[in-house]
Design brief:
alpha+beta, 5 helices, 41% helix, elongated
Length: 245
Amino acid sequence: MRKRVKAEYWLLFLLLRLAAGATYLRFKVPECQYDQNNQSAYDAALKCAEGGLAAVLSLFEYWDSERTIALFTVFLFVATCLLWTSTHDLVRGAEETAERQLRAYTSASSRDGMPSLTVGTNQAMGVVLTNFGQTPAHAVRYWGDLIIREYPLTSPLSSLPLPKGTFPINPGVRRPVVWETINALAAEEETEIRAGTQRFYLHGFVQYFDIFNTRRTTTFRYMYGGERLIRMGTGEICEEGNMQT
């Protein structure tokens, strides 16, 4: 035999509010004389309150244990879904944090030894590939190019294909790489580089895979030329062309 169970607190609260509203509207003594329009509004409000009260009472009449179990099951399902979503986000956040801490970070920093500016000779400039991460960088490939172009640049620099050969870079390992210009330095180029209207541009691209088998890339671009950099004997990183993923 079906047994009635007590209604939820919110249902009881709603019932009391409707009952109080209906009682207030039915027994309220007007403090002023109502006209016909006010009386119609009063009757409509009373009817609405009594209808709501009757609807709530009908819930009590037909509410039984099976409906309570069904409602509880729905609430449990919703709560389980919310808990799964929160747990999934928490686990994913922990995995992403671990990946950021353990992955390889390979950068290309400027190295000592700038172009000599000796006319009639090929000029050289390089970078140092360093893995600052905690795990090795696998299948490392790179390309680079040293060219003389106008300063500031007015057109993009061309890219080169990656070589087929690969190598690893272990954590903390520094790997120097040097490139030379294709042509020997001309006297006109040497004059314009010292004046700062032209500069050497060393740019390149590094690709590698971390321990999570995720492809990572590093692009770099350095320049050399002008009175200040020549006097200091160092290259300078460009505003564009330097990214890391």
